[in-house]
Amino acid sequence: MTSSIFLLAAVENVVAVLIALCTFIAGGAAGYFVYRFISNKQIGSAKQEAARIKEEASSEAKTLRKEALLEAKEEQHRIRNDLDKELRERRGEIQKIESRLNQKEEFLDKKEESIEKSKEQIETQKSLLIERQSKIDAIEAEVRQAHTKMLAELEKVSGMTKEDAKNLLVNEMVEDAKKDASVLAREIENNAKEDAEKKAKDIIGLAIQRCAADHAAEISVSVVSLPNEEMKGRIIGRVGRNIRAFENATGVDLIIDDTPDVVTLSGFDPVRREIARITLEKLVADGRIHPARIEEIVDKVKKEVEQQMKEAGEAATFDAGIYGLNPELIKLIGRLKYRTSYGQNLLKHSLEVAYLSGVIASELGADVKIAKRAGLLHDIGKAVDHEVEGTHIQIGVEIAKKYKESKEVIHAIAAHHNDIQPETLEAIIVQAADAISGARPGARRESLENYVKRLEKIEEVANSFDGVDQSFAIQAGREIRVMVKPEKVDDNTTMFMAKEIAKKLEAELDYPGQIKVNVIRELRSVEYAK
Predict the structure, then answer these.
(1) Using the 8-state DSSP alphabet, how is residue 159 labeled?
(2) DSSP structure class, residue 262
(3) 20 to 30 A Cα–Cα from 278, which one of 19, 181, 344, 412?
(4) Residues 344, 336: contact at Cβ < 8 Å?
(5) Angle 363-364-370 (CA atoms, 0-180°, nearest 5)?
(6) CA separation (Å) from 520 to 190, 299, 517?
(7) Radius of gyration of the chain from Cα atoms?
(8) pLDDT 10s digit of each residue in the chain, 530 long?
(9) Which residues contact 261 (CB under 8 A, 6 or more apart)?
(10) Alpha-carbon distance values, 301 to 256, 297, 306 (Å)
(11) CA angle, 258 then 260 then 264, to 5°
């Protein structure tokens, strides 16, 4: 029973599958026929559309071909017209060119004819010039002969040759020119002196008035006071050991004489003399005097003096208003405090020159900073000239270069004694300020012997000129009056003689400040009535 049921179910399933398969096949066949029908219909429509498009394209192509042919014909016609027009224009230009060429040919023909005529005229004039030149040559020969005869006659009459007459005429012209030049030079110099001297006096007077530095003459010895005469024995020490130790440590001579309650320190180097003075004062105040103590005090005092020199240099630069100096250069400036020149303290002299240079530079419109800086440093070489070979100018220039000073300052240092020619206004100002500071009354002192020798040398230079009768050096050698012989020297020559004497004094003598040269010519006529 059960198997029958299963079998019946299987048969039903197979039948269902067969029904479904038949249905699918029938549906597929129907779909295929429908597709074929639709496709054939679309293909027919497409063929009709293609035929229509082809007909339209063919008609449009014909239209375009007709339009292209028309445009080509129009373009051909336009090009033909343009070519005809251009051809006409070219023909017109060619005709114009031909006409111009014809005109030029005619002009050239006329020009050629005129050139031929000019050549004929030139040949004619050339022949005439040759004839005239021959006549001129003949006339010149006659003139030369006549001139030679005339010169010979003139030489016979005058008793002078041609060269003698020429030299005489030249000499007379030179003398006349000298006289005219001397008169003109005198007028120019007088006018310049009136203006320049007044201006210079105003500037220098103002500079001196505004410079109020203190001055004191210094000597080569220092005196130390003692509390009593017993101290002299203690300074000398047993068998002179203390005095020997003192002199060896300081490098200064200690002079003990009969002068009561004082001893004298003698030394050329002011720095060593100052160290010795302070050392001795400290030893006397302390009372303990023996070689070891002397050396100890000397070392301490050296450091104190170096510090004092540094402070003096800083004070000097501050007072002068100069900044930016190298610290080592400031120390060298401080050393000038213990240096003198002809009894004038060099630090005060340098400060004075800096002040004067600044005032003069401000009046003349020069660089005040450079002038003051060069004025303060112009004698810096004297700070070490006892220790280094060379003049103080050479040493100063080397020091300035070493510490990177400017070219203008170095040049002013090198030129302040005319070792080289000053090339800047600041260098000339430093020269003038140095001369003012050194030449003012009381600034320097010199021995009587040197003073007399300098005066004699000044007079000797003046007397070496021809025509000088006698000369007198006055005002401590700052002026010389030269009396000339009136029969040998005229008024115009006196000015040239004064200049020559001044140049020779500058070349042969060394002197502070300047020397005024006065050349005096006096003519006296004396007669006696009887």
Answers:
(1) S
(2) E
(3) 344
(4) no
(5) 95
(6) 16, 63, 10
(7) 61
(8) 555 666 666 667 777 777 877 777 877 777 777 777 777 777 777 778 888 888 888 888 888 888 888 888 888 888 888 888 888 888 888 988 988 888 888 888 888 888 888 888 888 888 888 888 888 888 888 888 887 877 777 777 766 676 776 777 777 777 767 666 666 776 776 666 666 666 666 665 655 555 544 433 345 677 777 888 788 888 888 888 888 888 888 888 888 877 777 888 887 777 888 888 888 888 888 888 888 888 888 888 888 888 888 888 888 888 888 888 888 888 888 888 877 776 677 888 888 888 888 888 888 888 888 888 888 888 888 887 677 788 888 888 898 888 888 888 888 888 888 778 888 888 888 888 888 777 654 555 545 566 678 888 888 988 999 888 889 888 777 889 999 988 888 887 888 888 889 888 888 887 766 788 999 888 777 787 87
(9) 225, 226, 227, 228, 229
(10) 22, 6, 8
(11) 70
Phi, psi of 481 (to 5 degrees): -110, 120
* 517: phi then psi, degrees, rounded to nearest 5: -105, 120
Q: Measure the CA–CA gap between 235 and 241, rounded to whole angstroms.
A: 9
- Nearest partner of 297 among 343, 249, 265, judged by Cα: 249
| Apex 240 CA angle, 236 and 242, nearest 5 | 60
d(CA 146, CA 140): 10
Q: Which of 398, 368, 356 is nearest to 380 (CA)?
A: 398
Nearest 5°: phi and psi at 234? -70, -35
CA triple 327-332-336, angle to 5 deg: 140
pTM beyond 0.70: no
